[in-house]
Design a protein that fits this description.
By secondary structure, the protein is mostly helical. Helices cover 74% and strands 0% of the residues.
Length: 54
């Protein structure tokens, strides 16, 4: 999951407005027990796309 988190972090650097990248990184961070990081990513998803399904 470390590789996935890193992959999505790079993707976010290239396209920071793509909510899906934050959502996938949040899931990776959750599985890595980085709950604060996951919550921040989910908050970013909601800011970028308020109609994102829960």
């Amino acid at each position: 999951f470390h590789k996935a988190e890193s992959h999505f972090s790079v993707a976010i650097q290239h396209n920071p407005r793509k909510a899906q990248y934050y959502l996938h990184r949040a899931r990776s961070r959750q599985l890595l027990q980085n709950i604060l990081g996951a919550r921040l990513d989910v908050a970013t998803v909601l800011l970028l796309n308020p109609k994102q399904p829960k």
